[in-house]
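Notes from the 1:1 (GR / supervisor)

We went over the backlog. Supervisor wanted to see one worked example end to end before approving the batch request, so GR pasted a single chain during the call. The sequence is below; no edits were made to it. Supervisor asked that the structure be written out right there so they could see what the output format looks like.
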Amino acid sequence: MRVPMIAGNWKMNTTVSEAVKLVNELRQGLDEIDNVDKVLCPPFISLAAIGELIIGSSIKLGAQNLYFEEKGAYTGEISPLMLSDLCKFVIIGHSERRQYFHETGEIINKKIVAALRAGLKPILCVGERLEENEAGRTEEVVTEQVKSSLAGINNINGLTIAYEPVWAIGTGKAATGEQANTTIGLIRHTISKLYGQRVAQDLRILYGGSVTADNATEFMQQSEIDGALVGGASLKADQFLSIVRQTSEIRQAR
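Structure output shown during the call:
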């Protein structure tokens, strides 16, 4: 059985002191839950401080992005080698990176290759825009994103995929559990065709997009959904803890 993951994407929020305060509020409650992987993805500036704070805890750390070169004249960028001593996970291909920073499937593919080479575990984000969803193109768009992001990669051990419909991110308009489950089943089928049934069944696929403590159970009860990539609710200790606890309770009941 796949171990569920709840990952918090803090985006461009929290100073270092605010990040430390939030982790202090989360640590004890998260450590009491042992059947869910808990990953916090703060801004780059807080990785070192939080890394020290969670030593000996069950919390894992992730970055929100990386650059695909190991070193060089790339002012302002962070390489996989810089991250490998600080964290284990890294979010790649988030819709905000695709939209605001014009990241293409080719760029995302290079980032995943670089992350895996450095021993990092990528959380690959895929998802359709509202107009694509309304035009009935969800399957086409999501399948293409998965294929282009993983092109030429023979071993995806360590990879997690997060299905995040763009129209649900930060809008308060989440997909229904049934909608998310159907699309995640499609993603798993695509992985099966690329890498085989066993790899597909072992792969964790999360849902993301306006996940809150109020709707988490609807998603976590679905057979194909292995957790959540949480945005705004991950900045509120009580909300994030509730989502993790609900996930744990559902897993125990299975």
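Supervisor's comment: The two ends are 10 Å apart (CA to CA).
Batch request approved.
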